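Worked example 3. Consider a protein that binds magnesium ion.
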Amino acid sequence: MNTMAFGHTKVHGKHGEFALEAKGLVKRFKSGRSYVEVLKGVDFDARHGDLTMVMGPSGSGKSTLIAALSGLLRPEEGRVDALDVDDLWKLSGGRIDKFRLDHCGFIFQGFNLFPSLTALQQVTTVLKFQGLSPDRAKKRAALALEEVGLGHRLHQRPAALSGGEKQRVAIARALAKDPQILFADEPTSALDGENGQVVIRLLRRAATEHGAAVICVTHDPRLEAWADRVIHIEDGKILDDQRRIPDPNAILASH
Ligand code: ADP
Ligand code: MG
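Given these inputs, the predicted complex is written out as structure tokens:
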């Protein structure tokens, strides 16, 4: 792993400024003839430069919260103000998609890579989609992959990569477009301690060095050590919300 700064990026917002504020989010799913309320009036915010960790057991509503915050799943009630957009859910579907493409990065437990594309192509594709020329997209993608320590794996397809390497490709793909908001859903849970540590350190750096608002949901309490803020969610409700001093050099023990 090199420790080079994300050279092609700028620092977003001002550390400490709000990137996202949500109020009163309610999400219900139909279950037979009734509804199950999965988010029960959630207020949430996240600031530039913070690694905000949302912790809760399986089924507590973490993935649903990320989906509602990022414009992927419309809540029945509540609003989301994100960057300079007042009430994201008032925009048309196309504008919401554009907002996500332009400003948000996503990292998932299952990596979500295209099986037929090389590491370089996974990242390049997203950048071209954003409007970069093929040449610039390729250069920036290679740089992003070098920054996550995969400079020597540019031409491998997912089948030839380890779990940790796949997640680093997904992180490079998310960071290459220099997102102001980075959503990570259980990013370490398919990884061993060593690879989990590489991943959480990269998320830490995205917040510190880019000024991204990094929102990471997990049921793994060991990740708390890197967080500026820990929010506990249970049964669709926020239980508590605490600021803390992160330890960027914490050790995620193997298990
Ligand atoms: P977490 O990510 O914390 O594990 P989720 O947000 O995925 O929790 O899910 C919270 C609850 O909502 C769970 O009980 C889950 O079964 C339910 N749920 C999630 N998505 C759907 C859906 N599309 N339809 C019905 N129920 C859902
Ligand atoms: Mg989940």
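Take a moment to read the result before moving on. The beta strands are 18-31, 34-47, 51-55, 77-82, 104-108, 181-185, 213-218, 229-234, 237-243. The CA atoms of residues 51 and 227 lie 5 Å apart.
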